[in-house]
Amino acid sequence: MATTETVRRDVERTNPGAVITLAQPTVAVAGRGRRPDYLCECGYALHVSGTGRHRVYFRLTDERLDDPIMNAVCPQCGRSLPGKSH
Fold it and tell me: Where are the alpha helices (DSSP H) in 1-86?
């Protein structure tokens, strides 16, 4: 994978004076009214991205998917969420 510096040097060599604009990272946005992907035993609904040990859980109320549940437990009851074990 090329680094930003490598890309800049390559562009300058082939197109002197060229202006380089790098894309900004994007944040996924949750769809309104989406159905839950996972329902905890306590009834708390979550959105899930990924599969197996690569699952990432988000609250359904999150507008932007930039704040995942990092501790692998249900925010409401504390039960372990499926996926990679601790």
Answer: 4-14
Residue with the bigger pLDDT between 10 and 44: it is 44
Rounded to whole angstroms, what are the CA distances from 14 to 7, 8, 11, 39, 81? 11, 10, 5, 54, 51
Sheet holding 56-59, edge to edge: 38-39, 45-49, 56-59
This prediction's pTM: 0.55
Tell whether the model's pLDDT for residue 27 goes beyond 80: no
Number of neighbouring beta carbons within 10 Å of residue 68: 14
36's tokens: 């839950």
Dihedral, 42, 39, 36, 33 alpha carbons, nearest 10: -20
Q: Which residue has the tokens 């790098």?
A: 22
